[in-house]
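hey
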């Protein structure tokens, strides 16, 4: 234990005491000791106890803690705090601009325990409701988090979608006589990209030299070159001779499970020369399978029967379902949201601000609901035939009930129900809450089923089949939350929902007009699950949507 290690322990202990809201005098004492120890010209481990106690700013109490670390390599008081602090809180300490006091508010008042959750809260303007967090502070924290996350090597598809083609263009311009074909998770529209992959016919040693000259980290074998630059994006290149490049590109564009199933059924000759990717399917009497569907083996059965779905496209979305205005934690007025939706060609808008239990998001109490509905009535007159629907994103409370009594819920055109609190649940607890909410006759749409935040929070465990079965029984729609950090429900469960006749709703969960564009990411995820526009609620025309709601309300 050198001085720096001892000082770091005291500094961390000081911060954790403040984060937990405990003895501020002790926190200051440990912080002061850390500063003093860092400046010492001699190693504490070489001093006797008496000399340690005599150091100005140390004293007997701190001195004993120093000796404890020198002798055992541990600091018991620090271990105690570490054990009772969520792991994600330590990551928050790495974010520029976040001190212990702010982290304490973020954790204890907002219930946030990870960097990703905090970024999501920044994007939803939730920090603005708390003392010490102005708009500028919130923006700075969000920027610092994005910088930190980008340094970790894994990225949301949204974060990398422009980078990938731009980098391909750069390579093609540098080596115009060679081919660089992007493949892997990116071409399959994976929610999270851990590395960008290309198949290329260039000599990898030439490419190695190119990257080393630009100070990339490089690792090379006979057929694979892996590099990483200052932007912390992992890049991987697979060499293939030009005459077998199409076949190699096919291999790399399939998930391992899909390619294994393909080869077991149809065989595969390495190095075989193909004219294009479609030939691979034609010679096996298969319908062409686009890369985004090359995930699950069952898709091969559909291709063999030439029954692949005509998947949904972004242009098929007719309305914005699930949006928040500045009545709760949104950034725009309802009228601005309406104008934005009209300008973008949508037929209707569902305003679904947060319910009263979401105090952190200015959730609506009954008197504000009434006032909002009066405003919506006025705007509907002003902007018709465009239609604004009255909705709420009702919290699913801890016992599974909704956030308002029936007489309040009956005032809405539709109700989206979501879990926002007490997310650390067993599967049994999560299922109890969700199933009760689904069975509530006022539930129209089940919002973000698992509460996950990609790269940040796994979400609570659920039995997806049981949830889908319950939604089928009670005629409840399941949301595919299109926010690129959610994409929840997971597309892997869409086929079962389709089988059970459950509608999906691709919703942006927009907190501002510019967030309507998030629909794109929901559509990309839905395509992977084989969703068609007919099976998606937000693809309904205004007339179809109104008819749907009328039938829904008959079940109440």
């Amino acid at each position: 234990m050198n001085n720096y290690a001892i000082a770091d322990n005291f500094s961390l202990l000081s911060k954790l005491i403040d984060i937990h809201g405990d003895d501020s005098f002790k926190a200051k004492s440990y912080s002061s000791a850390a500063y003093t120890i860092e400046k010492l010209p001699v190693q504490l481990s070489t001093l006797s106890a008496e000399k340690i106690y005599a150091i100005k700013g140390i004293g007997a109490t701190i001195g004993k803690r120093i000796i404890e670390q020198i002798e055992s390599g541990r600091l018991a008081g620090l271990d105690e705090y570490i054990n009772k602090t969520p792991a994600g809180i330590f990551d928050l300490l790495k974010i520029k601009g976040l001190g212990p006091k702010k982290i304490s508010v973020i954790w204890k008042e907002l219930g946030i325990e990870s960097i990703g959750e905090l970024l999501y809260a920044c994007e939803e303007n939730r920090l603005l409701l708390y003392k010490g967090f102005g708009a500028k502070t919130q923006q700075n924290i969000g920027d610092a988090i994005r910088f930190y996350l980008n340094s970790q090597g894994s990225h949301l598809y949204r974060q990398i979608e422009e980078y990938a083609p731009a980098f391909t263009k750069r390579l093609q311009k540098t080596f115009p006589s060679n081919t660089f074909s992007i493949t892997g998770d990116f071409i399959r529209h994976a929610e999270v990209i851990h590395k960008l992959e290309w198949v290329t016919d260039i000599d990898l040693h030439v490419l190695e030299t190119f990257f080393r000259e630009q100070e990339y980290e490089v690792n090379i074998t006979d057929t694979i070159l892996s590099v990483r630059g200052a932007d912390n994006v992992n890049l991987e290149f697979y060499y293939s001779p030009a005459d077998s490049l199409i076949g190699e590109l096919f291999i790399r564009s399939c998930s391992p499970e899909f390619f294994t199933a393909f080869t077991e059924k149809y065989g595969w000759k390495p190095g075989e020369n193909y004219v294009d990717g479609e030939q691979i399917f034609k010679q096996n009497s298969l319908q062409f399978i686009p890369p985004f569907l090359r995930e699950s083996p069952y898709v091969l059965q559909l291709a063999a029967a030439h029954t692949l779905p005509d998947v949904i496209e972004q242009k098929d979305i007719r309305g914005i379902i699930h949006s928040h205005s500045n009545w709760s934690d949104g950034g725009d007025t309802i009228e601005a949201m309406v104008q934005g939706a009209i300008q973008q060609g949508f037929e209707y808008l569902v305003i679904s601000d947060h319910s009263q239990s979401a105090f952190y998001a200015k959730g609506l109490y009954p008197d504000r609901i009434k006032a909002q509905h009066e405003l919506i009535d006025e705007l509907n007159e002003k902007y018709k035939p465009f239609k604004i629907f009255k909705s709420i994103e009702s919290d699913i409370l801890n016992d599974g009930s909704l956030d308002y009594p029936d007489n309040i819920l009956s005032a809405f055109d539709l109700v989206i129900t979501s879990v926002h609190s007490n997310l650390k649940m067993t599967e049994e607890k999560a299922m109890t809450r969700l199933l009760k909410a689904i069975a509530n006759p006022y539930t129209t749409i089940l919002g973000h089923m698992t509460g996950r935040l990609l790269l940040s929070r796994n979400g609570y465990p659920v039995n997806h089949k049981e949830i889908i079965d319950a939604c089928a029984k009670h005629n409840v729609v399941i949301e595919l939350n299109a926010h690129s950090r959610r994409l929840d429900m997971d597309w892997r469960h869409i086929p079962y929902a389709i089988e059970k006749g459950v509608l999906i709703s691709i919703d942006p969960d927009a907190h501002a007009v510019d967030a309507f564009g998030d629909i794109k990411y929901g559509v990309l995820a839905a395509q992977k699950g084989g969703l068609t526009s007919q099976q998606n609620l937000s693809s309904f025309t205004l007339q179809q949507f109104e008819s749907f709601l009328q039938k829904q309300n008959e079940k109440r």
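The chain has five domains: 1-85, 94-152, 155-239, 250-308, 314-553. The longest strand covers residues 387-395.
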